[in-house]
Every structure is written in structure tokens, then in C-alpha cells.
């Protein structure tokens, strides 16, 4: 029998979500797994409940952090332990605690990993509260160099075929340990948000692939964790992270081919949102651009130099072939946010 596949789950003051997640995990058709349940500095009463419910479970390894290390550091401490102490393990799975699982989820992830060795595997993440609607099917890269979730709010029937993407959402993903040993774990420049985008795209740039498994179904309580921490600084950091990823990972040739589209998208976004008086959006964008050209300039340069000095990467042509043209997506966003008046992610802060 192969060694049990490790599944890392973080908890931060989310006991009821965690219990529901673990209950659905216990119902999996594939039972050869070990859960690393990491509490990220929850309140004392919640820690006591976790110990009471799970300390005697042979499939669960409990860990308790004295403070909230965030998603990135909380996962990294366990990932590094697994990579160092368990060289026999071919894959590791990350799972959000605000999810529940189809009974075949884990079996499908593992089967897909076997069919596509050395690749990342993306779950089909469905909105927990509206199960006819997608959360995401992994990430796509536009030729404006934005990385966006695939299929958000689409019908679940629109995403039923296996296909490649540029990385999974780490809320329910399988990563090959071979890849993590070569390219590293999450970049600790990030704390909560976009770390999975960067890791997935880093894998792609370094020659790995990511495949979407439509039968690996997960129901996600969308933004349950993010809503606990969403404020101006969190939202500003999302846009900073977008620029950080571009600066760090995109090969030079691909960047300059895409630069006119990036410039057009940025200027058009500022102009249109000025006309529509979207002040929150403009505040985020202008402060992020100030960071790129002033406060963050040296960080972006040094991070890029270090990455390309340490890694062999795919060609710019290969990178461009993995991109989708931006116009259709931006027209959809124009209608959704500016015509219908829905809030963008950059406007949801208080």
C-alpha cells in the first residue's frame, strides 16, 4: 500500500466549518490519507474543542500555533516538514476548512495525478450556497498579465471537461512534491491572498503543468475566511500582489509583447472608473501604482533577479501560448461592474 497522502487544513476561529469539512473527509471513498490540522492561534475555547474532538483520531495530526501565521506561513511550516522528512510522498493536498467534499473527491485527485504525473491538480470548486454555480476551476492568465479564477459564477455544467490551466486554487489542490522541492513552497512575501496564484504560475514558468479534474468536486463557502480580514490594506495588497507576480515571474520577451495590452488595460480602467465615480477602485489602483514605481521598486527588481538566477524557465513563446486574450473578459467585467453596478473585489473593503 502506498503511504497515506498528507492533507493540510488550517483553522482560525472556524470550528464549525472545520468540523463539517472533516466530517465530509471521513466519508471519502479513498481512505489512505493523513490530515495535518493546524490551528492558527484560535481562541482558547476553540483550541480546547479541537483537542477534545480530534486528539485521539489516528488519521489527524494536530498542531497549534501560538499566533495566526496566515495562510502562507501556516501551510509552509508543514509543507517543509513533509518535504524534508517524508521523501517517499509523491503528492501533498491542501484543503480549506470552509469546504465540504464529494465522496469521490480525493480518489479523483489521486487518479488524475496518476494520469498526469508531475502535474498540479485542480478541484472543481462549486459555490457551497448555490450549487448550480462555480466558484472556480483553477486560474487563467490573460495577455494583460492578470491571473483570474476560471469560471467564477458560471453554471457548473459549463466546466465538465479535463483541461489545463495555469495553477489551482489552493483551497482544494494537489501539488507534486517533486515540483515543490525544485521551485519551493509558498512565497512568504504573501500572507493571505494570491500566494496560490504565484505558486501555480511559478510552477508553470518552471516547466510544470496544472490540470483541472472536473469530477473532483468541492463545495466552497466562498470568501468565508477572507471576509474575516478584508479591509483597505488587505485589498490594496491584492493589487500589489498582481504587480509583484508580473515582475517576479513573467519572462522578459513575454512581458514586452504583453506590455501594450497591460498599459491599455490599466489606463482604460482608470479612465472608465473615473467617469463612473468608482472612488474605492481608484484609491486602490493609484496607491498600488505608486508602490510599484516608488516604495516597491527595489523589491520588485531584486525579487525578479533572484528568481531568474535560480530557475530555468520556459520560453516567452511558450508563456504567451498559455495566455487568453483579455477583451472578452474585460467586456464581461464592464457589464457586470459598471452597467449592473455590482461591487468589484477592489471595492468590498470598509
UniProtKB/TrEMBL annotation:
Residue ranges of every copy of the Glycosyltransferase 2-like domain listed in the record: 7-148
TM spans (from-to): 254-277
CDD domains: GT_2_like_c
Keywords: Glycosyltransferase, Membrane, Transferase, Transmembrane, Transmembrane helix
InterPro entries xref list: Glyco_trans_2-like, Nucleotide-diphossugar_trans
Signal peptide: none
Presence of keyword Transmembrane helix: yes
Lipid metabolism as UniProt keyword: no
A single GO molecular function term of this UniProt record: glycosyltransferase activity
Pfam family membership, one: Glycos_transf_2
Family label: Belongs to the glycosyltransferase 2 family.
Record-linked PANTHER family: GALACTOFURANOSYLTRANSFERASE GLFT2, RHAMNOSYLTRANSFERASE WBBL
Name recorded for this polypeptide: Glycosyltransferase 2-like domain-containing protein
Taxonomic source organism: Flavilitoribacter nigricans (strain ATCC 23147 / DSM 23189 / NBRC 102662 / NCIMB 1420 / SS-2) (Lewinella nigricans)
Species classification: Bacteria, Pseudomonadati, Bacteroidota, Saprospiria, Saprospirales
Amino acid at each position: 500500500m502506498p503511504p497515506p497522502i498528507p492533507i493540510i487544513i488550517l483553522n482560525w476561529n472556524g470550528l464549525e466549518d472545520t468540523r463539517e469539512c472533516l466530517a465530509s473527509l471521513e466519508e471519502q471513498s479513498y481512505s489512505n490519507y493523513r490530515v495535518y490540522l493546524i490551528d492558527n492561534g484560535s481562541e482558547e475555547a476553540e483550541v480546547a474543542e479541537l483537542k477534545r474532538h480530534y486528539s485521539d483520531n489516528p488519521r489527524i495530526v494536530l498542531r497549534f500555533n501560538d499566533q495566526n501565521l496566515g495562510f502562507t506561513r501556516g501551510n509552509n511550516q508543514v509543507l517543509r516538514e513533509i518535504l524534508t522528512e517524508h521523501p517517499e510522498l509523491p503528492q501533498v493536498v491542501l484543503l480549506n476548512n470552509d469546504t465540504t467534499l464529494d465522496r469521490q473527491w480525493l480518489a479523483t485527485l489521486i487518479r488524475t495525478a496518476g494520469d498526469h504525473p508531475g502535474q498540479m491538480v485542480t478541484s472543481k470548486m462549486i459555490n457551497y450556497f448555490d450549487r448550480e454555480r462555480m466558484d472556480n476551476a483553477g486560474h487563467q492568465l490573460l495577455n494583460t498579465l492578470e491571473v483570474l479564477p476560471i469560471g467564477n459564477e458560471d453554471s457548473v455544467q459549463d466546466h465538465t471537461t479535463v483541461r489545463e490551466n495555469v495553477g489551482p486554487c489552493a483551497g482544494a489542490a494537489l501539488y507534486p512534491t517533486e515540483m515543490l522541492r525544485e521551485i519551493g513552497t509558498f512565497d512568504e512575501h504573501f500572507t493571505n491572498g494570491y500566494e496560490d496564484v504565484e505558486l501555480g504560475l511559478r510552477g508553470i514558468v518552471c516547466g510544470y503543468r496544472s490540470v483541472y479534474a472536473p469530477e473532483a468536486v468541492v463545495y466552497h463557502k466562498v470568501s468565508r475566511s477572507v471576509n474575516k480580514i478584508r479591509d483597505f490594506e488587505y485589498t490594496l495588497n491584492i493589487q500589489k500582489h498582481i504587480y509583484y507576480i508580473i515582475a517576479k515571474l513573467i519572462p522578459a520577451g513575454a512581458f514586452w509583447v504583453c506590455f501594450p495590452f497591460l498599459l491599455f488595460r490599466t489606463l482604460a480602467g482608470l479612465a472608465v472608473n473615473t467617469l463612473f465615480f468608482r472612488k474605492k477602485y481608484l484609491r486602490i489602483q493609484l496607491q498600488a501604482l505608486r508602490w510599484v514605481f516608488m516604495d516597491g521598486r527595489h523589491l520588485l527588481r531584486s525579487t525578479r533577479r533572484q528568481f531568474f538566477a535560480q530557475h530555468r524557465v520556459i520560453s516567452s513563446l511558450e508563456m504567451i501560448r498559455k495566455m487568453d486574450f483579455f477583451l472578452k473578459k474585460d467586456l464581461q467585467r464592464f457589464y457586470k461592474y459598471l452597467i449592473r453596478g455590482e461591487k468589484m473585489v477592489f471595492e468590498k473593503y470598509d
